[in-house]
Every structure is written in structure tokens, then in C-alpha cells.
Amino acid sequence: MSALNVIAFALDCPDPHRLAGFYGRLLGWEIDEAESAADWVELAHPEGGVRLAFQRDPHYRPTTWPSPEVPQKAHVDVRVDDLDTGHERALAAGATQLPQPPDQADASFRVYADPDGHPFCLCA
């Protein structure tokens, strides 16, 4: 059996270029214009590997996490060297900090939402 490899993790969103711009600022990655179109945008990791992709969904509804009304289906974890520096970078890119889970108040991660409401974590 041949090996299978993940090539991209895709997020549904109303505006792929806008959301790709946010994650590009956060991660320091560039849009791969050759692999992108109006309804699909790919961010390429500068060292190769799995890409982040953004796919237009005209019916997209953001999660209401931590409320279960519209549950999150997936989230991205981003490793940072320092949570405070990562926090400032995330806010400058356009993120919103979300409530820390009460049982994780002293954890080595912080929870945020991207501009379209997808939760993501910065992890030390």
C-alpha cells in the first residue's frame, strides 16, 4: 500500500483571501497564488509541509464556542516560543481572545478566534 500524506488543512469561510491574509500575518506565511483562486486560497509554509487552505462557503456560520449552539468542528494549534509575544502578534493580526476554559486557567495555551470565528490556540 502506498503512503498517504496530508497536503492541506482547509477552513470554510465567507472570504478566503481575507482569512488567508489573517493567517499569513499570524504565521508569516505567503499565499501560493499558483494554487489559489477566488473560492480557494492556499498558504504555503516557507519550509514546506502541510498547507493551510481557505475555501469559500456562502452558508458559513461561525462557531459559538464555548456555547454549544454552533459547535466547533476543528481548530488549529500554533506553537509559540512565548505566550505573551504570541498574544500580541495574534491581536495585531486581527484575532480576538476567547475565554480560557475554567479547568485550564494555568495551562500553557491561550484560546483565540480568527476574524471568521474559528477558534485556534497559541501553545507554548
Automatic annotation (TrEMBL):
PROSITE patterns: VOC (PS51819)
All residue ranges annotated as the VOC domain in the record: 3-124
Coiled coil spans: none
InterPro entries: Glyas_Bleomycin-R_OHBP_Dase (IPR029068), Glyoxalase_6 (IPR041581), VOC_core (IPR037523)
A UniProt-annotated Pfam family: Glyoxalase_6
PANTHER family: CONSERVED PROTEIN, HYPOTHETICAL FUSION PROTEIN
Name of protein: VOC family protein
Organism whose genome encodes this protein: Saccharopolyspora cebuensis
